[in-house]
Design brief:
Radius of gyration: 13 Å
Oligomer: single chain
Number of strands: 2
CATH topology: Cytidine Deaminase, domain 2
Number of helices: 4
Number of domains: 1
Bound molecules: zinc ion
Largest sheet: 2 strands, parallel
Strand content: 5-15%
CATH class: Alpha Beta
Helix content: 40-55%
Structural class: mainly alpha
CATH architecture: 3-Layer(aba) Sandwich
Shape: globular
Strand order of the largest sheet: 1-2
Distance between the termini: 22 Å
Length: 76
């Protein structure tokens, strides 16, 4: 999943230099996750700090993982 508001803060503090994600925010929201508020320019802001962003790697498979996880946590 692309970084949520919490992930973005941790990425900066932890010194992460690259981010790779599969699913998009709208994928997670369509499943039922609430990721909270986030800057519309988050990707540009990371790149300005030297953090590379690789988008939508194996997106359909990533969505399947999110769907499985959501189903699992909703059963508890
Ligand atoms: Zn997050």
């Amino acid at each position: 999943m692309e970084p949520c508001c919490q992930c973005l803060g941790v990425l900066l503090w932890a010194g992460v230099t690259s981010v790779v994600f599969g699913a998009r925010l709208e994928d997670a929201q369509a499943i039922g996750f609430n990721e909270g508020p986030r800057s519309l320019h988050w990707e540009k802001e990371l790149k300005q700090r030297g953090i590379s962003v690789t988008r939508e790697v194996m997106r359909p498979q990533a969505v399947e993982v999110l769907q499985s996880y959501f189903a699992l946590i909703c059963l508890r």
